[in-house]
Design goal:
By secondary structure, the protein is of the alpha+beta class. The chain has a single domain (2-134), classed as Aminopeptidase (3-Layer(aba) Sandwich). It is 38% helix and 24% strand. It has 4 helices and 5 strands, in the order E-H-H-E-E-E-H-E-H. The chain has helices spanning 11-29, 38-50, 97-111, 126-134; strands at residues 2-5, 54-60, 64-74, 79-88, 116-119. It has a 5-stranded mixed beta sheet, sandwiched between helices. A hairpin with a 3-residue loop joins strand 2 and strand 3. Helix 1 (11-29) crosses helix 2 (38-50).
């Protein structure tokens, strides 16, 4: 398994992975969410490539099997990396792909002398919560939403 920064030539494979991710996410939530169109995904990814505060890494083993999307932030009171998105294909789960991608985020945090790595996770995503806790992440606040 290899972890590396994403290249523009990965765009086609990443779009396929993002489509798989949206299906998975809908199943996990147990409700319908808007199905993204390939054109929308491509536009979002191209925007990320141009933004110097966003970084994408892929996990590959005979093709891309997962990715992590990071946002880097610095302000007068804090600095860090926010994990915007993390996804590993179903067939590659529980094989260390997600852990290696998270370790890449932690490595960048240390290299850039930032204070923290943070993320949001659905309360329904029990496997992800377990992984994050195993890797030393702690619950620091709750996000509340009113959807209707």
């Amino acid at each position: 398994m290899n972890i590396r920064k994403v290249k523009k030539s990965d765009l086609g494979e990443l779009i396929k992975i993002k489509i798989l991710e949206s299906k998975d996410y809908r199943l996990m939530l147990g409700r319908l969410i808007k199905k993204p169109k390939e054109k929308e995904i491509r536009k979002d990814l191209e925007k990320m490539f141009k933004n110097k505060k966003e970084v994408l890494f892929v996990a590959e083993e005979k093709g891309i099997k997962g990715y992590i999307h990071l946002s880097i932030y610095k302000n007068y009171w804090n600095s860090g990396i926010f994990i915007e998105d993390l996804f590993v294909t179903k067939e590659q789960r529980n094989k260390g792909f997600a852990s290696k991608l998270i370790k890449e985020a932690i490595k960048i945090k240390r290299e850039r002398k930032l204070k923290e790595v943070s993320l949001n996770v659905s309360t329904k995503n029990k496997k992800a919560i377990k992984l994050y806790q195993k890797m030393g992440f702690n619950l620091t606040h709750h996000t509340m939403k009113k959807l209707k």
